[in-house]
Amino acid sequence: MAEVLVNVLLERLATITLDKVGGEFKLVTGVEKEVKSLTRNLEAIQAVLEDAEQRQVTEATVRRWLSVLTEVSFDMDDVLDEWITEVLKQQMEKQEKQGENALIVTTKKKVCFPFLSSCFCFGQVNQLMLRHDIAVRIKDLNERIASIAKEKQDFSFQNITRVSELPERPKTTSLPNVKTFGRDEEKSLIASKLLSESSEGNEVPLIIPIVGMGGMGKTTLAQFVYNDEEVKSHFNKRIWVCVSDPFDEIKIAQAIIEEIDKDNSSKSSNVLQTLTQCIYKLIKGKKFLLVLDDVWSPNSDQWEELIKPLRYGATGSRVLVTTRKEEVATLMKATTTQMISLKALSDAFCLSLFYYSANMDENNVSKEYKDIGLKIVKRCNGLPLAAKTLGSLMRNKKKIHEWQAVLQSKTWELKEIQQDVFRPLLLSYHDLTPATKRCLLYCVTFPKDYVYDRNYLIELWMSQDYLNDKDNKEKIVVGQNYFDDLAMRSFFQDIEVDDENGNIKCKIHDIVHDFLQYLTKHECLILDFELDASERRDVSKDNIRHLTLVHATGNESLAHFLLNCKKLRTLMAIDSSKNSIGPLFELIVQLKCLRTLSLCGRWRESSLREIPETIGGLIHLRYLDLSDNNELEELPSSLGSLYNLQTLRLVECWNLKEIPETIGGLIHIRYLDLSKNNKLEKLPSALGSLYNLQTLRLVCCLRLKKVDVRGLINLRHLYVEECEKLELIKGIEQLTDMQRLDEFHVGDGDEENKLVDLKDLNQLQGSLDIRIRGNPNMAENAAAIMVNKAHLLQLRLVFPLDSDEGESREIMNGLEPHPSLESLSIDKYRGGAFSHWLLSLASLRMLSLETCTECGVLPPLGKLASLESLSISNLARVSKVGIEFLGIDDVQTSSSSIFISFPKLEQLHFFEMWSWEEWVGVENNNITIMPRLSYMTIHGCDKLKGLPDFLRKTPLRDLDIRSSFEC
């Protein structure tokens, strides 16, 4: 833990280069000497930290030495950050006085501070006092670090050189296929119990517990059976609920309703009777499978209330429970004949899992590696999680001496480790780079079973200065690399990728969470106010750096607790009452070391109404989340004093009417989210001063008419979806490095966006929705608007309702995409025929044609070699679908050469084709039509007389026909 802090300090000292100490960084005589001495001492300490980190587990004296170093490093970081912030403040004040809009010169790695003239107000008493105070604190802390550097000689530390660069890794793209080892017998047994129609004593539902110690693979086994195709088809309803500790019957009931019916309003109730009545109505007479994963300690009354409505399910209903405790199964009145006890895996199966996780072919491993691998696996004691973790560790170890080092590690001999599985986790942890370690440890600021959002996590890591990179990579990229490395090493699980935006969500295994808590027990604390006081972990308040409040309510003890946590760097509130946070705000703003403050208002009651001006005193703050506080109407003007702020989230602050001009003072801000503020009508002109802003989200700001992005020279991501009145994004044509733009409204007025504005934005990625209003001028300089956007994969074109055929065709011709486009949607196109470029999209996988009312003939889409999904809706003039649609012409029908129409098409959908009467194909042995078609839908085609014969030869699995065909 101390490693990253020391690295950060050295980077800050490098920022304050000695040639600048005499200028704006000048404090008092001798500061140059202090900076030199501090740098030397930290470099000496840095050289031995790798060895110290490993030895602290077994040597209490080393542990104490590192603890003192960590404490001093935190304090030094605060002082240096305060120093740099003061210089930034003075620069901004000077610019304001001179009426200049000069840009403070920055680089991606450090802030460059140009010298100021002698006229700068160094003579002011308060500045002199502050500078003197900082100088004195630096001198004092330097003396303490010098003492620590001297003490390190007493430990005979080894100078271990490690490769600090993170190797390039493939991006995490999908949830890996669930594969189990050595559990075939248990899988078959559980499946037979689920699929059997019989129940002991006609019990409904039948309770089937899976019992085993942590890390034994209970959840993986339950997931495997839950997703089995035969099991899926056997039950009317399947419900998965992660329970964990404490057992909260209200939350579990809410989760059951959510799984069965996401739109059911009863799920938001906190009244158990209301919830159980709803469950009763939803499952009565239905055969259901309910999985309660990770059940710890319900009492009999809680369980009896929850099981009552479940007894009205149909015969054959099942409740599958995973738990570490046999007494849980007894309390649930499960019979011993239904209980499945997971035992340790055999060495052979552990070895197979080990090699699978190491991405190695077990059959092709040399004897030398196999012998060492077997010895390593024997130390897993049959725990699948341990074997998986160690296998992931070996992925990058290609030399035999690296394998031997793992086998011979002293970590295996540790007596102090609380659980056996912690030893392999510790080995994998020590193999991480210092910065990646800190990123992993920070994850423990969230409670167990929390669903992590990768982007959100990266913003939090950034706020703690964990993402600095000597190669000047963008911090977001560095964070993505760290995340991928942790995922590859199996620290994350249940990884899911959003196909639309590529964002990733995941969880952390309970045992891994316990392990991280073990490593951070003096630094991170989660206070869950629904737990008994006896169950809460007691730590020294002076040492806490990261505090998370869960289910907090109005409480004097909480106020007293916060008063003693002066060194907090993170404060989060999760599922807490606003009555616990609002009155405490005056205390919160006294926590001067805060880097991260998340008071997201998903309150049990109403939200925060006011943010005090004193928040401007949190000069170290990098991350501020006030989202979902829907009674918040304005922000304090002191917000602009948060010079170090990098992320500001104000999502769904419904009543926020105005953003103060002082926002321009947030010169370090990189991420600004104002989404769903439907009373916000304009943005401040000072927005253009946010030179470092990389991401701006304005989704669903329904009243916003104009956005000025001039000056946002580093803006890369702009999200404006459902900003229905947004007519002008001024200056967007200058942002040629823009990577993400989700929606772009085009008009024909002077104060509206023009299509030509998109011409040079050739770095756009992902998806873009172009909505055309009016009849924009397609001048010659608008040629090739889209064709050079090779990274854009999804495009939607929405045409104006009042355009004529010629205008629509001209617009369409000018919007030819790059051939690499994968998904295209065309809506309300008024042309009689589609542009020629449609057939040039060789990579197109998905195509949707909707409400193209003037089109009487479908284009020859059968020629699109990569097309997998096709949807055609409301083409009112199409009366016949013939061979031209299949891409077949007269030459091909008479030719002896083989032709495949729609070679990859799997899904075909027709909706509301009111004039469609005839669908014909062709009989020719040399022509194959739709050889992969699996799913077809025909809705609202009531004049259609029949289906073509070629459909008989397709591998259709699902045919859905409604409101179609003449009777």
Strand and helix layout:
Elements: H1 2-15, H2 18-21, H3 31-46, H4 49-55, H5 60-98, H6 125-151, H7 184-195, E1 206-211, H8 218-226, H9 229-234, E2 237-242, H10 249-260, H11 272-283, E3 288-295, H12 300-307, E4 318-323, H13 326-331, E5 340-341, H14 347-357, H15 367-378, H16 384-393, H17 400-407, H18 422-430, H19 434-442, E6 452-453, H20 454-463, H21 475-488, E7 493-497, E8 504-507, H22 510-519, E9 524-528, E10 546-550, H23 556-563, E11 570-574, H24 578-581, H25 585-588, E12 596-598, E13 623-625, E14 647-649, E15 671-673, E16 695-697, E17 706-708, E18 717-719, E19 728-730, E20 740-741, E21 743-746, E22 766-772, E23 792-798, H26 805-813, E24 823-827, E25 846-850, E26 869-873, E27 880-881, H27 890-894, E28 899-901, E29 907-911, E30 918-919, E31 927-929, E32 935-939, E33 958-962
Parallel strand pairs: 1-4, 1-5, 2-3, 3-4, 9-10, 10-11, 11-12, 12-13, 13-14, 14-15, 15-16, 16-18, 17-19, 18-20, 21-22, 22-23, 23-24, 24-25, 25-26, 26-29, 27-30, 28-31, 29-32, 32-33
Antiparallel strand pairs: 6-8, 7-8
Helix pairs in contact: 1-3, 1-5, 3-6, 5-6, 10-11, 10-12, 14-15, 14-16, 15-17, 16-18, 19-21, 20-21
Characterization of the model:
The protein is an alpha/beta fold and 967 residues long. It is built from 27 helices and 33 strands. The strands form 7 sheets. A 10-stranded parallel β-sheet has the order 9-10-11-12-13-14-15-16-18-20, covered by helices on one side. The protein has a 9-stranded parallel β-sheet with strand order 21-22-23-24-25-26-29-32-33, with no helix packed on it. The longest helix is centred in the N-terminal third of the chain and has 39 residues, at 60-98. The N and C termini lie far apart (75 Å). Mean pLDDT is 82; it is low at 100-123 and 163-177. Residues 756-874 form the R13L1/DRL21-like LRR repeat region domain. This is Putative P-loop containing nucleoside triphosphate hydrolase, leucine-rich repeat domain, L. Residues 567-666 form the Disease resistance R13L4/SHOC-2-like LRR domain.
